[in-house]
Amino acid sequence: MLAAANQPANRWCSRGTGQATPGPRSHAAKPPRHATMPAPAPPATPRHTDEPASNRETENQVEVQEMSRAADGVIPVMDEAVAPMLPDGRFTGIGVQGLRFPRRWTTPGIHPYDQIAWETRTASIGNEKGVNVFEQRDVEVPAFWSQLATNVVVSKYFRGHLGTPERETSVRQMIDRVVDTIAAWAETQNYFASDETCAPSRPS
After folding, report:
1. Residue 113 belongs to what H/E stretch?
2. Beta partners for residue 141, in sequence order
3. Residue 151, phi then psi, degrees to nearest 5
4. Residue 21, phi then psi, degrees to nearest 5
5. pLDDT value of residue 40
6. 100 within 8 A of 197, measured Cβ to Cβ
7. Tens digit of pLDDT for each residue in 144-160?
8. Helix (H, G, I), strand (E, B), or coil: what is residue 195?
9. Axis crossing angle, helix 147-157 with helix 171-188, rounded to the nearest 10
10. Of 78, 87, 144, 183, which has the fewest CB atoms closer than 10 Å, so is most exposed?
């Protein structure tokens, strides 16, 4: 009995019938027949490996010249063979087909500011000691804005010194300033294909 108990499970054993019967088969995993390892990726080729040093020096000189021109405020946008440029290097867009955009989220004849509710609040920011480091009262903001949005926009993006007539007091003024500036660039450099396309981009 003890000898039989010590026999491995996969050995042939007799169960009293006079015939040998196989024991349970082993379920050990077998290695796949055609196991292959993925081919290693080729090593990356360093940039400019085959280029002579003179070419790399020329590229560096061109980049330095472009950075110098950018620092001087003269940044040509496009070759004059495409469209004329202003003396300071700005692109005019004359003779170039402009962009077309359909009107979205606004209604002709209705000012976008009249389509939302507005309210007056106080924008205030305090430090960890509870002391106000910024405060502006009676600022006009959209009614659906959170107080956090009010504090961030008023403190960071309103123009003018606090307590002076030049200080902006409404989000309408801020939007007008930004949009009118970009729209003026668009008109000067012919961003859009027509005045009708440009008009919806200006709230006023």
Report:
1. none
2. 119
3. -60, -45
4. -125, 145
5. 67
6. yes
7. 999 999 999 999 999 99
8. helix
9. 50
10. 87
